[in-house]
Specification:
Blueprint (H helix, E strand, L loop, with lengths): L4 H11 L3 H7 L6 E5 L6 H7 L4 E3 L6 E4 L2 H4 L3 H4 L3 E3 L6 H4 L8 E4 L6 H10 L4 E5 L3 H13 L5 E4 L3 H7 L4 E7 L14 H7 L6 H13 L1 E11 L8 H10 L3 E4 L8 E2 L7 E3 L9 E8 L9 H5 L9 H7 L11 E4 L2 E4 L11 E4 L1 E7 L2 E4 L1 H6 L8 E4 L4 H7 L4 E2 L10 E7 L2 E9 L2 E4 L9
Parallel strand pairs: 5-6, 5-8, 6-7, 8-9, 19-21
Antiparallel strand pairs: 1-3, 1-4, 2-3, 7-16, 9-13, 10-13, 11-12, 12-13, 14-15, 15-17, 17-18, 20-23, 21-22, 22-23
Helix pairs in contact: 11-12
């Protein structure tokens, strides 16, 4: 691979005698990755049913090297949200931010969702994830990935981080900033990035990165943690951004990152981590974990954490459908917005923002009937719905369902012979359908259909 001469000189200064090993690594095959969604299935359970050729990624608890990415994106288990396809090194930032159930978490630059889906999954339905991307088109892809992963306690926004900072000062327990960058660590995977680098080098991104990290730190509560990451090698975009934060906000301090033998120390900041493709299988990455000192006070934000709500009056059709669920619903957290019904995350009250989603979208009230959403199906377990139809992944009807076709399921056992059914591949939901006389009317969301 022919590298830009200016870039090669910078890497020589950074790597010294390791430069040739780095250059040779760029001619190796690109590594593909699969990360198991542990909110839906354990790694052991997935290993028992996977049809793919996989090998464990040693530094990612739920990550695997994958040899057949195209096949993995065309399997019913993918549509069931059991895994996310992600480059191995890109799995690292979310794995090193210690998110716990009940946390309020911000992913500030979240699209397309590789890191947000992992953070949301680790919340296990408790607390709240705010996933934001300033680009509306990218935020739509983010929303789909979060809903496919079955993350219920999520707000998805497309806001300028400045607006978020005004509304969420000293609020979040954990913040992740995977900052836009010059992408030097992706030259191997996407060689066209070199042309972009020539047009817009590291200097073009530094002002944005410095602004983002300050905004993210200000939204962090006392005692909270922030993880900053990029997929570039430039010290200007990596260590110098961290040094700038530490200078501007003395209440922030670097923390040790859970180690791995292939990690390299930061250039001048040894607690930071660099991932080089000649030291470990994957692309280039930079990570820094920081903690904010002080007590958890959240000045002026008490209403965001303890807001009281009044249970809304629901139409009879919505009440009738909810009676089919054994999914835990706090009725005070229900919100009927025009004809759309949502289940909001906990008692967190949020201001008016440019939302793409507020909590778990349950469905629509249409005249005298209720139509459940695709998002609800993906958040359920089979035992949480009154009646399920289970299909095997090899059954031709599984793909037909994902294509939106009507199915004859008269040979399959069902708990309820008529009405709404949760359609599953084995024990993993795909969507809804409506059964009558052994024929299933397909309700799989048109925008997600198998093409």
């Amino acid at each position: 691979m022919n590298l830009p001469s200016d870039y090669e000189q910078e890497m020589k200064e950074l790597l010294g005698t390791e430069l040739e090993a780095y250059k040779k690594s760029l001619d190796l095959p690109v590594m593909q990755g699969l990360r198991v969604n542990t909110a839906k299935i354990t790694c052991e359970e997935f290993e028992a049913i996977t049809p793919f050729s996989m090998e464990k990624i040693p530094w990612i608890p739920n990550g695997y090297f994958l040899k057949e990415e195209e096949r993995a994106s065309r399997h019913p288990y993918y549509f069931a949200g059991l895994y996310y396809l992600q480059e191995p090194s890109a799995m690292t930032p979310a794995s090193r931010l210690p998110v716990e159930p009940g946390d309020c978490v911000l992913d500030l630059c979240a699209a397309p969702g590789g890191k947000a889906t992992e953070l949301g999954g680790r919340l296990m339905g408790q607390g709240m994830l705010l996933a934001n991307d300033i680009s509306s088109s990218r935020a739509k892809a983010l929303l789909k990935n979060l809903e496919m992963a079955g993350i219920p306690n999520v707000y998805v926004t497309s806001e300028d981080p400045e607006v978020l900072e005004r509304n969420f000062t000293s609020f979040f327990d954990k913040v992740l900033i995977d900052a836009p960058c010059s992408g030097e660590g992706m030259f191997h995977r996407e060689p066209r990035m070199m042309e972009y680098w020539k047009e817009r080098g590291p200097e073009a991104y530094v002002p944005v990165q410095k602004k983002l990290i300050l905004q993210g730190a200000r939204m962090l509560r006392g005692g909270g943690m922030l993880l900053y990451s990029t997929c570039t090698f430039s010290r200007k975009e990596d260590e110098e951004v961290i040094e700038y934060l530490l200078q501007e906000m003395p209440d922030m301090r670097l923390k040790e990152i859970l180690p791995y033998e292939g990690f390299a120390k930061g250039a001048g900041l040894e607690k930071c981590v660099r991932i080089f493709p000649h030291r470990m299988p994957g692309e280039g990455h930079f990570l820094a974990l920081l903690e904010k000192s002080g007590e958890d006070s959240r000045p002026g934000q008490e209403n965001l954490r303890t807001g009281k709500r009044k249970a809304p009056k629901l139409p009879d059709c919505a009440e009738e459908f909810l009676s089919l669920l054994s999914y835990p619903i706090d009725r005070e957290n229900l919100k009927l917005d025009r004809d759309r019904l949502y289940l909001l995350p906990g008692r967190v009250e949020v201001p008016k923002l440019r939302f793409l989603r507020t909590g778990l979208y349950l469905g629509d009230v249409k005249k005298n009937r209720f139509e459940p959403s695709q998002a609800l199906a993906m958040a359920l377990k089979p035992e949480e719905f009154v009646s399920c139809i289970r299909l095997e992944p090899e059954d031709v009807r599984t793909v037909k369902y994902l294509k939106g076709e009507t199915l004859d399921v008269s040979d399959l056992p069902v708990e309820k012979q008529k009405g709404w059914q949760l359609i599953c591949v084995r024990d993993y939901p795909l969507g809804f359908g409506k059964l009558a006389g052994g024929i299933l009317k397909n309700k799989y969301y048109a925008g997600w259909r198998w093409q």
